[in-house]
Design goal:
The complex is a heterodimer of chains A (591) and B (138).
Chain A (H helix, E strand, L loop, with lengths): L4 H35 L20 H4 L9 H18 L8 H4 L47 H11 L10 H14 L30 H23 L12 H4 L4 E3 L5 H4 L2 H20 L9 H10 L4 H28 L8 H23 L7 H12 L5 H9 L6 H32 L16 E3 H25 L25 H7 L4 H22 L17 H22 L6
Antiparallel strand pairs in A: 1-2
Helix pairs in contact in A: 1-7, 3-6, 5-6, 7-17, 10-12, 11-12, 12-13, 12-17, 13-16, 13-19, 14-15, 18-19, 18-20, 19-20
Chain B lengths: L5 H28 L10 E6 L7 E5 L4 E6 L2 E6 L10 E3 L2 E3 L6 E2 L5 E3 L8 E6 L4 E5 L2
Antiparallel strand pairs in B: 1-10, 2-3, 3-4, 4-9, 5-6, 6-7, 7-8, 9-10
Classes of the chains: A mainly alpha (591), B alpha+beta (138).
Chain lengths: 591, 138
Amino acid sequence: MPPTSKHRHQLSRSHTLLAVAVALFLLIVSLLAPLRAGASPQVQSTATPTVQATPTFDEQRLEKPVIVDDPSEQLKKGSEIYWGICMACHGDAGQGLTDEWRDAYGPEDRNCWQKGCHGTDHPPQGFLIPKTMIIPGVAGSGRLTRFKNSQELHDFILANMPWWDPGQLTSEEAWQVTSYILRLHKVMPLGFELEETNASAIRTQHAVPQPSDDRPAVLALTGILALAAIGMIAQDLRRNKISVVAKPNFVHHLHPPTLPALQARFRYTLGAGGLAVFLCLVLLITGILEMFYYIPTPEHAAVSVEVITSLVPFGALTRNLHFWSAQALLIVVSIHLLRVVLTGAYARHRRLNYLIGLGMLVLVLLLDFTGYVLRWDEGIRWALIVGTNLLKTIPWAGDWLYRLAVGGPEPGTSSIERFYTWHIFVLTLAMIILGAWHIFRVRRDGGVAVPPPDQRKDNARISRFDLVQREVLVMVIAGVVLLFISMFFPAPIERPITQATVDVQNERAPWFFLWVQQLLKLGDPFFWGVAFPIVLLGVLAILPYILPQPGEEELGRWFPRGNRLAQIVTIIIAFAITLLTILFLIPTTQL
Amino acid sequence: MKNISRRDFLKLSTNSLFAAAGLLGIGGLLRYLSYQFDPTPQSEFDVGPAINYPLHSRTIVAHVPAIIIHDEDGLRAISLTCSHLGCAVEERNFGFECPCHSSRYDPNGAVVKGPSAANLRKLRVEKSEDGNLHVFTT
């Protein structure tokens, strides 16, 4: 029995109320989850040292490290090292060798530098403390001012401590001590594990707000979207062919009213073009969000990336989404390009749109490279230098192009500002304009493709409502996959570039330019690094103009006979690029 | 609710899930945007030895900004940040004037003419052990 319209109206109102109630409940639960996790009872363990050193004094202060409220392994180890090595001089509370601290020792040891262990006549196990030396405190107001952040403190400890035997600590132990000292100094957030890819975000003079664990919320979001996708699929299976929706909304209006069902076949389009649009949207949104915290200066760029990644709520998620969408975009547009060539879809009046698409491929590569460089950490150092030096090898215009890109005689403040401007503004704007034009041309040129000849009489059409529904479904599924990848695979990050560090190196180009790096091993940098890739691009660009095109009757199918030559050329190029990348990745035998 | 069809039910649940995801996203967005990394600004200023501020002196310390007044009542400090919208006020023969919107204050910081509605703030002044004056802006 069909419900009356009044009945229906009431039903839909209660539906809305129910929906809002469910949504609010889920939201509150998921937002509270991280708070609860943060507030859950922490094991209040006193970090008891397992180091079996025997304190020679029975004063309580010397017995064990100052109790710490954070039972993380790094801090516990740090407290043991500090207690065993540093505390004697730097004090149990990091106060330094004050009179008050010396009084904690027995009378015979209070003036330790006069005789005995630390005098001029010290035994082999001891060491001399010069009488004039002031042993600084390491915690409390006004301390550690010579270090900007925990990275610098770690580097100093590693190189200079313990005073009588510098270099005794491993880097890991130096992190543990650093972590403990900064906890004494009250700037170290609870439960924060220091390492070289987040240490610059922890400053020595200002405590940072406690980072939250946002994994539960991300997991909830992923789960909800996955369920929604299932819901959509379930609806889709039961739908009638023609959707009856009275008024198309703005998004519907961006699509043609109806299109031949055969044009929207997944096994013809592979969904690559639509997926690329979705990835661009994700990149745009996450990119804008990153701009709220990113600081494009050599001193702050890498540090601000560390802040986004390890401190800002959902910052790691934002950055990972941006990174993985960018990598996925490159793959998706390559598949799109292959599809277009292998179906001969660039033929005739679609040649212009093919060129626009190639232009966008170049933009994606440039966007990927400039975005990669913006990290400004040790990982991009050599890629930046090689990439910009390649510009110099170009005859006539080389120096000018180098100055245009780098903004000075060598990479520095100007270059990061320029790369930033290129990345967030010039290239992005060009991408938006070309993208809009590209999509407009698809419609102007008669839709995605002409159906195969034997099926052109098929009058089945799908409405824009169905089309949008399909697009949303693909976006939701792609979003779930992206969220999932972003949750478990962090975007690369390395320690900031500083003058002091040249030993930590990543000499690899970003993965999409590894084939160029392999080519560059062959010889002349201009020929292999600039001219050759440009020639490849040029070959792709003139395919529709010089090589035979598929006949009208062949369109709408994979591998038409008419443009076999173009297909072969493209496959050879794709194969060569893949092969060069693999060759680069195969470790060469070191002799 | 009994005669809700299977399709309507699916549609309702799916839309609720989207609404939940949207709200969750907005919640995450708000938390993302409300993180504060930069330290809170300095609120204690060492303005040098107290003997630099003799009786019957009025000294402007621009970096606070404040004016330190030493008269029969002792040492006190008045903030030179306009209570209207935060510009630094300038000293005039009648007292202080704000260059931004022309609020006026008398020499003791009491508001004389709007748009400002409140007097200039009185700041806490303390002498430290080493004889320096410290001005507190909070």
